[in-house]
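Posting for a labmate who doesn't have an account.
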Amino acid sequence: MPLNPAIDDWRDRVVWIVGASSGIGRATAHELHARGAVVVVSARNLDALGEFVAAHPGSHAMALDVSDATALAAASRRVLALRGRIDLAMYCAGHYRAMRVADFNLADALRHMQINYGGALHLLDAVLPILTAQGHGHISLVSSVAGYRGLPNSMAYGPSKAALQHLAETLYLDLSRAGIGVSVVNPGFVATPLTAANEFNMPALLTPEQAAQHILRGWGKGRFEIHFPKRFTLWLKLMRLLPHGLYFAAVRRATGT
């Protein structure tokens, strides 16, 4: 049973993707443009945004830093001015560095929360009044399977993504009856600039283009949680059911930690 209004026709829909300079955000913006959406891309990298707009006629770029709530609010007003509405806002900005106790860095741990979670709150502050006034629309937060349970190397990244999952569930409870869709995207490993620094094997690695296809398929089926690839994520979802002792032992066996 779909938990959200399904979106399978993107023609003339206004979609704002925050975190679209590379990786999943850019690939999703490309696919939406190909399906007829009015795509607005935002990120800090103005050159990357300019390249996207040049390659995708009719799209729009609005450079911003997600840590700046004022900039996000101003951008939301500009997006609204394009067609008088926002049909979907996607938060895809992210920061990632592998971290364990031995190399704990407070400043970088806080940076993860500022970008991965705090930036999403800034986007919500900007778009929630617009969507509630419209009485329709969709908010999609890109989290990660790293937020399911504690994992090695994920001391900073995992908690920030777990916070997004909790946030999405709470948003859904408040917004679904108002006709506003909410989804949380939990990818496995995707080949992006963020994961390029990983020095370990990444099982079931996908391209950003494959990830974008999974996301649009999930929106088209009205899903709340969009997780992929299933051959990897279903195992992790099953491991969430294990008691702590069994879970810790399984992770240590699987990762050699």
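Reply:
Got it, the structure tokens are right above this. The mean pLDDT is 94.
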